[in-house]
Amino acid sequence: MSDRPRKSESGEDYRTWQRVSVTVSGTPYSVATKPGVFAHGRTDPAAVMLAEQIDVPARATVVHMNAGNGLFGSAASPRAERVLLTDRNVLSVDAARRTLAANNATNAEVLLGHGAFGLPADLAADLVAIRTPHEKLALLQLLSDAFRILKVGGRCYIAGANNEGIKTAARTLEKLYGNAGVVTYDSGHRIIAAVKRTDAPASAEDLENPFLRSETFNELDATLRGRQLALFTRPGVFSWDHVDEATQILADAMQIEPGESVLDLGCGSGALGVIAAMLSQTGRVTMVDADVEAVRSSVRTADAAGIAGYRALTSDVAAAVRDEQFDVVVTNPPFHVGKATDLNVPLQFIEEAWEVLAPRGRLFLVANRTLPYERVIYQRFGNIGTLVDGRRFKVLMATR
């Protein structure tokens, strides 16, 4: 069992930020990245296309939603009056801030939030750029928010790959704005643009979905470990429209004693954290997630369940609580960054669970049965047990 921080298969330290150079129209930009950040280890064609192809008007107010690592914001900064970037993922926000600083984009600001959430209420933008997310309703909210904050005459641009829903996004843009056209297309990626011609959308049909409003949560009735719960979620949060089977399995299998402190690592809607608080009988539970919409959801779930004394924090893995210790860590770790499978993130969950566990503290982890976590858990903890070995999922346990 080693006390050294785990490194990825490529030898990278998960926590070490790197700078890579990306050339946009002949100009090099320094871009911040590390394991766990979207498009780490590769160039995102959609982001480069946005930076290269969009003509930013002089002294414009520019907004970039789902901003990723901040490349477009850096490229837009020299001509714009003001650049506002938003992203729901705390890693992307950190990356974007580092990228803007590295490129001296002093008129640009990054906010943690989905779409227009957190932007000034009176904001009137000349240009909104959107990197397509993968969840359809999350994308629709971005498009709706963009229409709302744009001035008449302002332009909305969306960029993404064919297998990321860009064609569907283009049709939605056409319905909202009454116009849409392809700016450029390359290697399965494209940019679509539309002009806001009036304050009223050409068609309001797609805007009737209540989840487009950031204050509206989806309420799911769930039975976990024999307890009836109301789970609150938002589009784009893991398993936002149904109760995840793996969560149900872990809720039944995890072992928490009265008085124990618990960390729900990657909390999603807060289902496991709430059950853990009920089992510990103290509410001494901390829930963390990289997605601010998940953290907002977990707050609603915990409040509805009457849990007292809990915390819900945005966090890159366990970074927000790295100096603390817990008796139990429960987790259903993510293994996708965008559409790509990236085991660096769940393996870092295992590493940081060990770091924040008190002596004799216990890890309970649920995973698809095909994911190869056992070796890493044994190497880090020196022990491992299997509590559930099901057809689709397994629950692994280890003691520090």
Could you explain how this protein is built, in words?
Helices cover 27% and strands 31% of the residues. With 400 residues, the protein is an alpha/beta fold. The protein has a seven-stranded mixed beta sheet, sandwiched between helices. The protein has a seven-stranded mixed beta sheet with strand order 14-13-12-15-18-20-19, sandwiched between helices. A two-stranded antiparallel ribbon has the order 1-2. Strand 6, helix 4 and strand 7 (150-161) form a beta-alpha-beta unit. The protein is globular, with a radius of gyration of 22 Å.
What would you say the CATH architecture of the largest domain is? Answer: 3-Layer(aba) Sandwich
Taken in chain order, the helices and strands follow as: EEHEHEHEEHEHEEEEHEHEHEEEEHEHEE
Number of helices, where a helix is a run of at least 4 consecutive DSSP H or I residues: 10
How would you classify the helix and strand content by structural class?
A: alpha/beta
Number of separate strands: 20
Mean pLDDT: 94
Distance between the termini: 11 Å
Helix content: 25-40%
Task: Identify low-pLDDT runs.
Answer: none
- Reported by name, the CATH topology of the largest domain is Rossmann fold
Oligomer: single chain
The total tally of domains equals 2
Could you tell me the strand content as a percent range?
A: 25-35%
